[in-house]
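Structure ticket #2291
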Amino acid sequence: MSRRLPDFGALELLVGVDDYGSLSAAGRRLGIPQPNASRAIQRLERQFGVPLLQRRTSGSTLTPQGTVVAHWARIVLADTDKLLDVVQGLRVGHSAELTVGASMTVAEHLMPRWLGQLRGLHPEMTVHLEVYNSATVFEKVLNGEYTIGFVESPTVPQELHGIAVGRDELVVVVHPEHPWAGGKHPIPIAELASTPLVVREPGSGMRTTLDMALQEYDRAEPLLELGSAAAIRTSVLEGVGPAVLSTLAVRDHIASGALRTVDVEGLDLTRILRAVWRSPRKLDGPAGELVQLACGGSRNDSAATGSAR
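Resolution: structure written out below.
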């Protein structure tokens, strides 16, 4: 294997395959034509000496080796973003900084609007946003790496202050040809528990919410464990199996009929989205403003003091 540095654009594509479920989807997100994206990954495979993609007519997905490389590529790219942010701060003399961590659902669907509004209030500020599952966000807030975190986990560590900033609902989704799609009545919750599902990894808010809801039932082993909602959604669209996903991630596909929701007897997967931080209890400055923006701009004391958990 060559010891020269890999092409960072190819690493971004590889991480994109993990996030969005296929090479074509990753290329579209990054604005790279499909032939160029394929050539970039082929060059990376030759450099590393391992196959990174499984190439099928339905689309290219990660091999087991590709999944490992994508994990480390994500860390390398995150550190590169930090370097660029620091260089930009040095170049333009920025002094105000805010480091934010967010779980994937919040980061993909909600954070762009909130951070855009914050940028309007503080155009001189440098904001560092990092995306991990809820468990990792908790850890990084606790050790001081993040000023504030946004999570979707049903519980919050006692050492942290937290405030609800919104609600979300998880739904069972299937391919339109799945047997559950044509049912006229809700399925029993025990049937859902005993069915292999495509799920997120342990530690994600989505996985924790599902595990807590089904903890009293005999559980089947997961059909697949994937690192992003986008990858799970792609798997369901390709008929791999049923999954439980946020309505934020699948509402367009449900509206178009590409996915079908399945009602489950007695299952409530409503969850609270939270902002979390360490002391002091009263959160002020740009971090406090970000929380208020996430809460819809309300100026109540609970949003600033962490009286909700």
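Closing remark: The longest strand covers residues 161-174.
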